[in-house]
Amino acid sequence: MSVIRDGIPAAPGIVIAPARVLRWEVPRVPHGVTVPEAQVEAEVQRFLDACAYAQERIRAVQARAEVTVGEVEARIFDPQVLMLEDADLVQGTIGYIRDNHLTAERAFEWRVLEWESALSHSSHPMIIDRLADLADVQARVLRRLMGMPDPDLAARVEGDKVILIAHELTPSVTVQLDPKHVIGIATDLGTRTSHSAILARSLDIPCVVSLGNLSETVRDGDELILDGRQGRVVIAPSDEEKETYRQRDYLVREWEQELVLLAHLPSVTRDGTRIELRSNIDLPGEAESARTHGADGVGLYRTEFLVVGRATAPGEEEQYAAYRKVADAFLGQPVIIRTYDLGGDKFPAFLHIGREENPFLGWRAIRVCLDEPDMFRTQLRALGRAMVHGDIRIMLPLVNEISEVERSRVLLEECLAQLRAEGEPVPATYKLGAMIETPAAAMLAPELAKHVDFFSIGTNDLVQYTLAVDRGNSRLARLYNPFHPAVVRLLDLITRAGNEAGIEVGVCGELAANPVGAFMLIGMRAHSLSVAPSSLAEIKKVIRSVTWEAAAEAAAEALTAATPDAVATGLTQRLSRMLDLGKFNGGYNLSGGE
Ligand code: PEP
Ligand code: MG
Q1: Fewest CB within a 10 Å sphere: which of 57, 133, 357, 545?
Q2: Which residue lies with its CA nearest to atom 1 of ligand 1?
Q3: pLDDT tens-digit profile of 121-138?
């Protein structure tokens, strides 16, 4: 009997292979060991040497990561390097050696335990990431102190193709993976935004995270199916299940093959309405793959991933280089760069946000940018400089009020004037847009439209704020439904307001990547849809298979429906007349949850 485990999809792709369970465990330190007074200083020195060695090893892994996954991505090791310089951690450990005559191993373990317990009171993904970094550092220092070799990961996974199972993968382990051997990753912990998930996407290894106690359930050699799009792992699958997934994989690949052929064809409906199909990217390195997959530009570049896990804010030069890299990949095509959407579930250490009862209703996105003008100015200056190299447009997250747009505009104008005075080339005009992702912004859309050059609808947040359903709470996943009539009506309000004002209306939330959702949005006169690179194929297929007229009729009908089921069923039936939706089955979730 097979066992199905569902987690969070973190990197797309379907693979079938035996499991290899990796235990990157922190070594057990013998208890009750102390050192005589005369040896205390030697013990302190042994600890400092181990820290220096660990730092050197982390730097070496970082240097390798720069080559394999890119410079920006390699920055995720910065916090580990900094931890080993942190006075609280290092001096605290030395204090335990000197005061309690503990061995270096035991003293360090104590100090780390204290850090862990302080950090683990938070449920924020960013803090959870810090715990992963801490575990990485702890294992390195302890292994050195205890005379154990650095784990030779390559030897553990070489040979056949395997799906790597771990309780949690630390970034430095993930970055050592060779995609030729490790063809899938499944972990007990982790979030979509955790470092390992980001690295898995960059390395193109299908990945599912947050799978509970999978690593305790699976044994080396167990056969598994891993579906990184669906977020599912099947343990000991039957022949029938394997066949189903092979078929699904085949269909997805067939879609992708089709896209190779479609990539150069325009993204137009059968009756000639052009829908710009753009890509969402999290890291500058993804721009190239988005372009080869046929995106007409970037509809959402989430710049906050530049700062994920960083102890210091990235400077103007670093940001400028990242923004240029994306613009260079899409010469002549729009690249929408969103200013930092920090807070909520993304907390860089340098912001000292502090604990909030309700982070998604708290200090986040444009609120943070406007309250931290120095940080915001650095980003706007970098954007201003990058803008002359392409069609870069600036987008503000979580706008609720006109004043937020206007205050941002004043800052942007100031930055442009300053750059001009410094002799930097800056564009004469620019495009500034707002994400519409709260009911407040939706209700205010007709007025907001007079103050911006474009709207981009963030359905992920719009759904959670409209329905009062946390987008990350798996218990409520059933209620997180973008086809709820209240959401549909707000979408209509926004698209109508944008069209009446003559500005572009795009959609960059996950609903745009749902075939049925895309169909409805086309019917509502959305001008552009922006989806993850892995969804470009399907959505291009949807656009080229439907007529705008049929989509408009379907959207009009959806607006009259009173229940989420009635909305979804009506749309699905109409779309099925033009497209074999069976091919998509299982590949997306009709309720559209993330
Ligand atoms: C959204 O809210 O729909 C969106 C695209 O932004 P994010 O998912 O980054 O919050
Ligand atoms: Mg959002």
Answers
A1: 357
A2: 458
A3: 655 555 666 777 888 889
Q: What is the CA radius of gyration of the chain?
A: 25
Average of per-residue pLDDT across 77-96: 89
The closest of 284, 283, 355 to 126, measured between CA atoms, is 355
How far apart CA 31 and CA 560 sit, in angstroms, is: 69
Residue with tokens 């997306």: 588
Pick from 198, 455, 456, 460 the residue to mutate for probing ligand 1's pocket: most ligand atoms within 8 Å of its CB.
460
Label each residue of 348-411 as H, E or C: CHHHCCCCCCCHHHCCCCHHHHHHCHHHHHHHHHHHHHHHCCCEEEEEECCCCCHHHHHHHHHH
Distance of CA 230 from the midpoint of ligand 2 (Å) = 21
| Span 525-544, pLDDT tens digits | 999 999 988 788 889 989 99
Which amino acid would we find at residue 292? Answer: T
- H/E element holding 469? none
Q: Which domains does the chain have, with CATH numbers?
A: 3-24+152-238 (3.50.30.10), 37-145 (1.10.274.10), 253-584 (3.20.20.60)
Listed in sequence order, the DSSP H helices in 452-510 are: 459-467, 485-501
User: Which ligand 1 atom sits nearest the alpha carbon of residue 280?
Assistant: 5
| Residue 188 Cβ < 6 Å to ligand 1 | no
Q: Is the pLDDT of residue 404 over 80?
A: yes
- Exposed, middle or buried, 403 (CB in 10 Å: 0-12/13-18/19+)? exposed
Q: Is 73 in the pocket of ligand 1 (CB under 6 A)?
A: no
Task: Please confirm, yes or no, whether 207 is among the known catalytic residues.
Answer: no
> What was the pLDDT predicted at 316?
97
Chain centroid offset of residue 76 CA: 14
Which atom, in ligand 1's list, is nearest to the CA of 341?
Answer: 9
Q: What is the DSSP string of 130-197?
A: HHHHHHHHHHHHHHHHTTPPPP-HHHHH-SS-EEEEES---HHHHTT--TTTEEEEEESS--TTSHHH
| Residue keyed to tokens 């003293």 | 107
How many angstroms separate the CA atoms of 97 and 378, rounded?
43
Is 80 exceeded by the pLDDT of residue 591? no
Distance 9 CA to ligand 1 centre (A): 16
Is any atom of ligand 1 closer than 6 Å to the C-beta of 383?
no
Which of the listed ranges 261-275, 351-365, 485-499, 578-592 does the model predict with the highest average pLDDT? 485-499
**Ligand 1 lined by 192 (C-beta under 6 Å):** no
Task: Measure the CA–CA gap between 313 and 310, rounded to whole angstroms.
Answer: 7
pLDDT score of 586 more than 60: no
CA nearest neighbour of 176 among 193, 207, 153: 153
pTM above 0.85, yes or no: no
Pocket lining: 458 vs ligand 1, CB cutoff 6 Å: yes
User: Active site residue: 51, 124, 167, 195, which one?
Assistant: 195
Q: Residue 195 catalytic?
A: yes
Give the pLDDT confidence of 242-288 residue by residue, as tens digits: 999 999 888 878 777 776 787 778 999 999 999 999 999 988 888 98
Torsions phi, psi of 141, nearest 5? -65, -45
How far is residue 299's CA from residue 172's CA, in Å, rounded to a whole number? 31
Query: If you take atom 3 of ligand 1, which residue's CA is the nearest one?
Result: 458
Cα–Cα distance for residue pair 46/108, rounded to 1 Å: 12
